[in-house]
């Protein structure tokens, strides 16, 4: 029994000694996917869709009210300055004009009588036949008659102008973009009946989000491409809305276009505007950002080890992000960033 026990101890000892000869293999560094920063990763410009409009759009209306008896244009009609667009029934206004002319004739007769009386009594006053108070009375009557005549003449001129206002004419060359009233309709003074777009100067209107409006300046040169004509032209930022739209929270930006015959009202344009941070902003996949608190960071690979670098996020675009703080040649980890630790050794995957 004692011999069997000793033999078991010896066998166990040999087993222990044999296990001690095997070496423990260290864990291999993890494989990471990287993106090497190059000039091609730089954010060069922003693109926005816009619509071609006329720089000057006028809502036309009559200066007097009445019933429309004719309409000489329709939506899309091209007109020249002075062309007749619409006409109101002039009968009532013509009667008012004749009444005003009659008032002028009556006031003129009263003025003539006042002048005659004043001249007669002025002669008597020179001969000391009447008192000065009597002459002053006729002088007052003459002044009142003159004032009444002037008022009647002004009223007659106003009535004549109103008669001319029954014809609506184009104030400039352009295109009728909207018709808001029809023949037979009674309209009031100032009610919009037509919209005239002047085609001499065209512009593109785009809406810029509030985080990008700082990239746009009045007088800045931009590029506009037109899907319908395949034309590409250079425009100039003419106007920037001082206030964001209450619904979309975007700023309307108007861009003046050169005189290009192929561009028509309502066409769609793609406007490219260079970013103010284009020279230093780098586009990375959103997966590359390692967020710690409020700070955005990325993992850089240098010498086979990773280290964190703080970056500034300037814009988001779908699954990409634009950041500042990187330079050409930096190797940025773009996958598995939350499994790394500072100073950890890594292997770069093939194809990166």
Describe the protein's architecture and organization.
The chain is α+β, with helices and mostly antiparallel strands. The protein folds into 4 domains: 84 residues, conserved putative lor/sdh protein from methanococcus maripaludis s2 fold, CATH 2.40.420.20; 84 residues, Efflux pump adaptor protein, beta barrel domain (Elongation Factor Tu (Ef-tu), domain 3, Beta Barrel), CATH 2.40.30.170; 65 residues, RNA polymerase II/Efflux pump adaptor protein, barrel-sandwich hybrid domain (OB fold (Dihydrolipoamide Acetyltransferase, E2P)), CATH 2.40.50; 74 residues, Helix Hairpins, CATH 1.10.287. The protein has 3 helices and 23 strands. The protein has a 6-stranded antiparallel beta barrel with strand order 3-12-15-14-13-16. About 3% of the residues have low confidence.
How are the elements arranged and paired?
Blueprint: H1 2-19, E1 31-32, E2 34-36, E3 45-54, E4 57-61, E5 66-71, E6 78-79, E7 84-88, H2 91-126, H3 132-164, E8 167-169, E9 174-179, E10 186-187, E11 192-197, E12 202-209, E13 221-226, E14 232-240, E15 250-256, E16 268-274, E17 282-285, E18 290-292, E19 295-302, E20 305-317, E21 320-324, E22 331-333, E23 347-348
Parallel strand pairs: 1-23
Antiparallel strand pairs: 2-22, 3-12, 3-16, 4-11, 5-7, 5-10, 6-9, 7-8, 9-11, 12-15, 13-14, 13-16, 14-15, 17-21, 18-19, 19-20, 20-21
Helix pairs in contact: 2-3
């Amino acid at each position: 029994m004692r011999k069997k026990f000793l033999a078991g101890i010896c066998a166990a000892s040999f087993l222990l000694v044999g296990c001690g000869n095997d070496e423990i293999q260290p864990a291999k560094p993890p494989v990471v996917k990287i993106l090497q920063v190059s000039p091609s990763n730089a954010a060069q410009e922003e693109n926005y869709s816009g619509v071609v409009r006329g720089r000057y759009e006028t809502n036309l209306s009559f200066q007097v009210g009445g019933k429309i008896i004719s309409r000489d244009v329709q939506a899309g009609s091209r007109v020249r300055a002075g062309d007749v667009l619409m006409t109101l029934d002039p009968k009532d206004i013509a009667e008012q004009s004749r009444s005003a002319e009659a008032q002028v004739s009556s006031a003129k007769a009263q003025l003539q009588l006042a002048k005659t009386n004043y001249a007669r009594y002025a002669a008597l006053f020179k001969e000391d036949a009447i008192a000065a108070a009597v002459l002053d009375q006729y002088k007052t009557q003459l002044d009142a008659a003159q004032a009444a005549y002037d008022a009647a003449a002004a009223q007659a001129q106003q009535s004549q102008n109103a008669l001319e206002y029954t014809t609506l004419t184009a104030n400039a060359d352009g295109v009728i973009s909207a018709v808001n009233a029809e023949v037979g309709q009674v309209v009031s003074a100032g009610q919009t009946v037509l919209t005239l777009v002047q085609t001499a100067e065209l512009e593109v209107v785009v809406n810029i989000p509030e985080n990008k409006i700082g990239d746009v300046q009045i007088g800045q040169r931009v590029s506009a491409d037109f899907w319908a004509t395949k034309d590409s032209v250079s425009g100039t930022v003419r106007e920037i809305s001082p206030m964001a739209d209450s619904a979309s929270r975007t700023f309307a930006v108007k861009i003046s276009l050169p005189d290009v015959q192929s561009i028509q009202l309502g066409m769609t344009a793609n406007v490219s505007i260079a970013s103010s941070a284009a020279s230093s902003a780098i586009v990375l996949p959103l997966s590359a950002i390692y967020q710690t608190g409020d700070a955005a960071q990325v993992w850089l690979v240098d010498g086979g080890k990773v280290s964190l670098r703080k970056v500034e996020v300037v814009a988001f675009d779908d699954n990409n992000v634009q950041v500042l703080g990187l330079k050409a040649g930096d190797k940025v980890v773009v996958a598995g960033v939350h499994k790394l630790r500072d100073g950890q050794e890594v292997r770069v995957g093939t194809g990166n």
